[in-house]
Q: What sequence folds into this?
């Protein structure tokens, strides 16, 4: 493998030497890579995507000085599976990580392993969530499982260590430390910075609690009757069912009955679980925490809210905490960018910002992800790399997390023998307006009936304009949306649409299932 890659590298160099002057790529041959990924960050909570909820100047900077991908999507909208797709460039049914009950087979090929083989220093800090030990990294320092928001316990190359502080800041500190003290000066590096935030249960840092509670607008489709959408009707991720203790941060001593089940889980231990999270905090942390949340709790119990008043109060509580977690991500990404700039490494580093998927911020009345609807199917994607990407670039082509690994290979001119299932985004990064997925993009979600939130298994195809979804397993239900006419996906037109259109989309769906070798799905078509 090593000799094959070395030979390929020489061939690429020879090929480059023949390039005419006007097409010479100004990029350094081996740029550094910083891949920043948050967990559950909705595009609707980033100002560069037009959010009316929050200002994210540091995240926006990556896109403003680089490229904003407006139509970036995930193959399977849940944490572990998305991470496995990023690493392998293969769909879940081939990399073996279909849902969060799976364990990642770390022996398979991943892009960090190839980079390491090519002489890159590879590192990952923060959330890993693939259960197996990270492979292909010179340095790894990762949270255990979902990780904690305060004083996280992390595993540093096999050694378990307790850290003091707010986790988004702790992970950033570890990234800065890696840049300053671990990465050899004579090596290019690939540093993956994976935040826990803004994953449930949305515990903000003190500096953002100091901003206080705000009132946010309800999404237009907050109240949804789920007409013609039985899977949407039968989920268990409605804001009305959020937990009063761990989600809403009410005084657990006064929460006599928890609301919601989160799906398959028994909710009787939720308050106890919340107490464990609270107990992680130091006395000083508990002091500012209680000073913020106890008055909210007291007011809530005095008010005795019911019906719409109660669910809208829950929405406000949820969004207030979620956005404060985002603000910390934004501050810390700013620290990382400033640090790179001070080191003179900013412009020769390819910086990527994304999330493992999107999230619902009250659309359809929901939180969480999983569905192939836009809010959780879509994800932020920003890139900054001045030698290739012109500042202020915007892209509206369909792209996927599946494309990342082959994009790394293409940008670094690495010839690999891997059967990547995605496409290189380098032409788009250079400003070409080209569909890398001209027949549409394919999705497949598996975590049902086990796991959280009761979102039924489904697969589907999304084209530039239409989205066709098939829910299967204990249901056989098709949905079709015209994304131009109905961007909120409230009107399932499967039964009423032109049959030729339906037939054409079904044929494209089968074509993609064949192309991606998802034979298992084809039996349900
Ligand atoms: Ca996630």
A:
């Amino acid at each position: 493998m090593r000799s094959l890659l070395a030979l390929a590298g020489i061939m690429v160099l020879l090929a480059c030497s023949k390039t005419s002057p006007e097409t010479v790529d100004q990029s350094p041959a081996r740029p550094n890579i910083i891949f920043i990924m948050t967990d559950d960050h909705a595009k609707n909570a980033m100002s560069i995507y037009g959010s009316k909820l929050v200002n994210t100047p540091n995240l926006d900077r990556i896109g403003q000085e680089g490229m904003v991908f407006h139509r970036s999507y995930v193959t399977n909208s849940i944490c572990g599976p998305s991470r496995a797709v990023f690493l392998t460039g293969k769909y879940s049914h081939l990399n073996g990580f279909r849902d969060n009950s799976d364990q990642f087979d770390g022996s398979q090929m991943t892009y960090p392993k190839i980079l390491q083989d090519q002489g890159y220093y590879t590192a990952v800090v923060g959330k890993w969530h693939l259960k197996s030990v990270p492979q292909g990294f010179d340095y790894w320092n990762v949270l255990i499982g979902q990780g904690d928001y305060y004083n996280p316990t992390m595993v540093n190359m096999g050694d378990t260590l307790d850290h003091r502080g707010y986790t988004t800041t702790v992970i950033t500190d570890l990234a800065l430390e890696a840049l300053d003290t671990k990465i050899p000066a004579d090596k290019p590096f690939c540093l993956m910075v994976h935040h826990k935030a803004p994953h449930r249960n949305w515990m903000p840092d003190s500096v953002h609690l100091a901003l206080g509670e705000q009132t946010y607008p309800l999404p237009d489709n907050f109240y949804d009757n789920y007409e013609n959408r039985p899977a949407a009707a039968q989920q268990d991720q409605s804001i009305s069912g959020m937990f009063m203790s761990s989600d809403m941060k009410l005084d657990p001593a006064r929460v006599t009955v928890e609301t919601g089940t989160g799906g398959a889980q028994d909710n009787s231990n939720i308050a106890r679980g919340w107490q464990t999270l609270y107990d992680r905090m130091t006395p000083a942390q508990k002091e500012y925490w209680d000073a913020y949340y106890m008055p909210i709790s007291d007011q809530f119990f005095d008010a005795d809210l019911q019906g719409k008043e109660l669910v809208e109060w829950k929405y406000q509580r949820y969004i207030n905490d979620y956005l404060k977690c985002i603000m910390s991500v934004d501050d810390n990404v700013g620290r990382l960018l400033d640090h790179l700039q001070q080191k003179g490494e900013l412009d020769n580093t390819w910086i990527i910002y994304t999330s493992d998927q999107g999230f619902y911020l009250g659309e359809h009345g929901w939180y969480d992800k999983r569905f192939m609807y836009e809010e959780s199917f879509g994800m932020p994607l920003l890139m900054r790399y001045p030698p290739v990407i012109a500042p202020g670039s915007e892209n509206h082509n369909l792209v996927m997390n599946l494309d990342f690994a082959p994009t790394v290979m293409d940008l670094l001119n690495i010839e690999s023998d891997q059967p990547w299932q995605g496409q290189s985004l380098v032409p788009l990064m250079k400003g070409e307006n080209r569909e890398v997925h001209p027949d549409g993009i394919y999705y497949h979600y598996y975590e049902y009936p086990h796991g959280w939130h009761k979102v039924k298994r489904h697969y589907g195809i999304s084209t530039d304009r239409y989205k066709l979804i098939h829910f299967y397993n204990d249901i056989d239900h098709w949905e079709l949306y015209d994304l131009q006419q109905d961007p909120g996906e409230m009107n399932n037109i499967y039964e009423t649409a032109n049959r030729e259109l339906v037939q054409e989309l079904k044929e494209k769906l089968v074509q993609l299932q064949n192309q991606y070798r998802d034979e298992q799905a084809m039996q349900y078509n």
Observations:
- The longest strand covers residues 32-38.
- The CA atoms of residues 240 and 307 lie 9 Å apart.
- Residues 32-201+321-429 form a domain with the Alkaline Phosphatase, subunit A fold (CATH 3.40.720.10).
- The chain has a mean pLDDT of 94.
